[in-house]
Amino acid sequence: MDLPEYSYWIIAGLAFVIAEFAVSGLVVIFFGIAALLVGSLKFLGLLDDTAWELTLFALTSLLLLVFVRRVINDKLMGNERPRGEGEADSAGLVGGRATVADAFNNGVGTVSYRGARWQAQCAQPLHPGDMVRITQHDGLWLTVEPWMPGPQTPPAE
User: Fold this and answer.
1) What is the pLDDT of residues 6-21, one digit of tens each?
2) DSSP 151
3) In a designed cystine with 16, which of 31, 62, 96, 129 is the match (CB 3.0 to 4.6 A)?
4) Hey, which bits of 19-151 come out as E strands?
5) Residue 110 and residue 119: Cα distance in Å, rounded?
6) Could you read off the pLDDT of 113-135 as tens digits, one per residue?
7) From CA 51, how far away is CA 118, in angstroms rounded?
8) How many angstroms separate the CA atoms of 16 and 31, rounded?
9) How far is CA 11 from CA 18, 19, 29, 45, in A?
């Protein structure tokens, strides 16, 4: 069974798109989109030369990775807090939701955030399992407050 040349691009494109589900990171899918585009253009008879096919595939993949990936990644992995808030927090922790790991004694305890344990301080008593919002990040210490759904005002500095 001899497949037409465009079908190889289509098969490769579909394989890349499916592979994105196994290899997360929003990278492989753009190779798939580029391969599907080249396969479609080849099917329509708009591409005949292998050099042009490879050039179009490489350029389309690169442009999608550079320009579209950032936009889609921001939409899919959006932040809870509005832009402009917590600019001084270079680690991006302020506004995040953490879980109390150890009870707070004298205003100090431990919270879990993204799989890591942090020393934290809070003026209110907190118990293991309580949800908290990170309001300040200073070195290895976090300042937290009890979690309340909805938009929160930034802490006064």
Assistant:
1) 999 999 999 999 998 8
2) -
3) 31
4) 97-105, 108-113, 116-121, 131-138, 141-146
5) 5
6) 988 899 999 988 888 998 999 99
7) 54
8) 6
9) 11, 12, 13, 18
